C-alpha cells in the first residue's frame, strides 16, 4: 500500500541522512551521481532538522523534505531499516517514524 510505503520512507530517510553524513567524505558512496536511494544529499539534509534529537520539539519537515520522500527508492532505503547508528548521528528514531505523518496525517510507519 502506498500509505505504508511512504511512512517507511520517513524512518529510512533519517537513516539515510546519517549514512549520507557518514559517507560524505568519500562522496561517491552510491548511485545516481552522489544521491542515495533516489534522494540527493541536499534532500536528505532537508529532512534532518525534523528528526533531530533534543528536548525541544523539532520543526516540521520542509516541503522539500516531504517531496523528496515521495520519490525516494523505498526498496533501497529499507535496507537501512535496522541501522543502529541513528542516535550517534543525532537522529531521533521516534521523530523519524513520525516524519511521514507530518508530511501527510494519514501516513503510518511500516517497512
Ligand atoms: C525523541 O522524540 C520524542 C518524540 O518527539 C521525544 O519524546 C523524545 O524525548 C526524543 N528523544 C530524544 C533523545 O531526543
Ligand atoms: C531501488 O533500490 C533497489 C535496491 O538498491 C534496487 O534494486 C532497485 O532497482 C531500485 N529501484 C529503482 C526504481 O531505482
Ligand atoms: C486522510 O484520510 C481521510 C479519510 O480517508 C481523508 O478524508 C483525508 O482527506 C485524508 N487526508 C489527507 C491529508 O490525505
TrEMBL record:
Q: Does the keyword Signal apply?
A: yes
InterPro entries linked: Bifun_inhib/LTP/seed_sf, Bifunc_inhib/LTP/seed_store, DIR1-like, NsLTP-like
Q: Which CDD domains match?
A: nsLTP_like
For this UniProt entry, the molecular function terms from Gene Ontology, in alphabetical order, are:
fatty acid binding
Among SUPFAM superfamilies, the record links this protein to: Bifunctional inhibitor/lipid-transfer protein/seed storage 2S albumin
Keywords carried by this UniProt record = Signal
Q: Where is the signal peptide?
A: 1-29
Does the keyword section mention tRNA processing? Answer: no
Q: Which GO terms describe its biological process?
A: systemic acquired resistance
Q: What are the residue boundaries of the Bifunctional inhibitor/plant lipid transfer protein/seed storage helical domain, all occurrences included?
A: 16-110
Stated name of the protein: Lipid-transfer protein DIR1
Q: What is the lineage of its organism?
A: Eukaryota, Viridiplantae, Streptophyta, Embryophyta, Tracheophyta
Amino acid at each position: 500500500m502506498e500509505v505504508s510505503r511512504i511512512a517507511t520512507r520517513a524512518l529510512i530517510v533519517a537513516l539515510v541522512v546519517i549514512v549520507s553524513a557518514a559517507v560524505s567524505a568519500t562522496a561517491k558512496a552510491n548511485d545516481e551521481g552522489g544521491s542515495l536511494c533516489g534522494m540527493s544529499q541536499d534532500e536528505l539534509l532537508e529532512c534532518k532538522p525534523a528528526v533531530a534529537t533534543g528536548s525541544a520539539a523539532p520543526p516540521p519537515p520542509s516541503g522539500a523534505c516531504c517531496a523528496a520522500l515521495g520519490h525516494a527508492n523505498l526498496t533501497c532505503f529499507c535496507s537501512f531499516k535496522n541501522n543502529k547508528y541513528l542516535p550517534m548521528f543525532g537522529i531521533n528514531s521516534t521523530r523519524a517514524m513520525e516524519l511521514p505523518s507530518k508530511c501527510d496525517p494519514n501516513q503510518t510507519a511500516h517497512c
